Each structure stands twice: as C-alpha cells, then as structure tokens.
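Quick start: read one record
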Amino acid sequence: MRQLAEFESESQARRLSEALTGSKMPASVTRTRSGRFALWVHDDAHLDDARAFIDSFRANPDHPRYAELAKRASEDAKRAAREDKRLQRRTERIRSRMQRQTGRIGSVTLALIVLCTGIFILMQIHPSIIYMLTFAGFKPVGNGQLIYTGLEPILHGQIWRLVTPALMHGGMGHSGQALVFGLVHLGFNMWWLKDLGTIIEHLHHSWYFLVMVLVIAVVSHVLQFVMAPTSLFLGMSGVVYGLFAFLWVRGRFDPAYPFRFRPEIVVLMLAWLAIGFFGTMHIANWVHLGGLVTGAVWGLATSGWFGRKLRAL
C-alpha cells in the first residue's frame, strides 16, 4: 500500500479513489494529522499507472470518464457486499446443520461400512463370491488359474460390477497373511470412509453422498479397466480418494464451505498416491487417480468458483 497524493478536498480525494478502483486499481482515502486527505493505492504494482491516472484527472477533473468509473466501482462494491451476505447466510446454514448432527455417523456411511464388512466375512467363507463382483469377468479353472472374460458379464446385464469392486477388500487365499492384509485393507478404508462420508452427509445430504460414491466408483473402475484391462482390483480406496478430493477442492475454492483439510493430510494423501505409481507395490493406481480427479472436478464444479469468475469479468 503506497500513498499517491494529498488533497484539501475530501470529495475530490474520494472521487479519485472511486475512479481508480473502477479502473481495477483499488485505492482508499485516509485523513492526515494536518487535516488533509491522503490517497493510497493498495497494490504497489499499480503505482506508476495510478500516478499517470492522477495526472490525467488533475488536467481535466470534470471529464465524464471519471464519473463513469466511480459508478462502476460503486456497483462492484454493492455486488461484493451482496455476495458476502449470501456466503455468510450459506455458511451459517451449513454450520447449523453440522451442529445438529455432530457425533452421529452418516446413515449411508454406516450402511456402506456394514456392507463392506459383511462382504469381507463372506469372502472368507466362500472365496468364489469374488468372481461375481469383480469389474472384469474371471472364471477359475483350477490350480489357481483364471480365464479372463473381460466385459462380457457387464454387457450381459451384470451392471452391479461397475460398483461392487469397491465393496470388496483383501485378496485371494486362506493364509494367515492374506487374512491380515485383508483386515488392514478393510480397516484403513473404513476408517477414512467413516470420517469423510460422515462429513459429506452432514454438510449435504445422504442421497447426495450416495450418488457421489456411485459416480466416483464407476469412473475410477472404468479408468482402471481401460488402463489395465486384466487387473483384478478391489477396495474402497478409489472412492476414499474421491471424497477426499471433493472436500479438499471445495474447501479451497468455496469461501463459505466450513470444512478445510490440514496441509499435512493433503500431503499424506498425495504422497501415498505418488508412491503407488512410482513404487513397487501392487496397487490399483488408476482407481486412486480416477477417484481423485472425479472428486476434484465435482468439488470445483459445485464451489461457485466459475460463477464468481464470470461475474467478475
């Protein structure tokens, strides 16, 4: 912020301040100790242009251009005030909804956790159920061998396969190691689902959350199939990445949104995604990336950012 000039007349200083602001060079006026009125430009990058503007103003202060610029600044200020009130009302409404539901796990979130846990238990009892729920078709032919049938099951009406890979956790086999891996896989994903899903259900609506889960699951599974057609992928982690990305992006681009991630959580999630792609672990990386991108696009599209940019033009 830099002082440009001083004026004896407050009305002249304020008129020039409004004209500068209308020219996209925000300015303001303060009273000095000597009783004069100081004109300040807010951004030092505008200093030279603002000084040239003042010289032009002093040469012809009655030019209609300055009245038009002052009018534009006044209209912009009123529009910004209306937007601030709208955002404030929206924030208060969302916070009120969250306060009423604090401590309660979301109903759809709980149903998904119960469903995933039930399917995990069923997979330990009847491992063959996995072949009914995978995205691409696989048929066991003995000795641990599988016949890959691709999209044939989906094309013949088994459309639940678009979503059901997200409901399965763990892997094949009855070994203790496979069971431990499955429990860790299930527990980690359900922990994130409980937190992220409950937040979204409380901020929006259970049906909104359910639709989001279905869309993220379908998009991330399709991407994984396109990039790695014969891969056998399971788990809720793609949906978890989508929910995370939605909350992260919505919080960054929607001033009224009452939820923000701590920076270390964002770093952790993105680092784990990168490790999956560049590490040696067998992870369905395209599911994670598909979920992340889908959630981020959803968050940006619903944040009002595009509308604000258009109104600012």
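Strands lie at 2-7, 27-31, 37-41, 137-142, 145-150.
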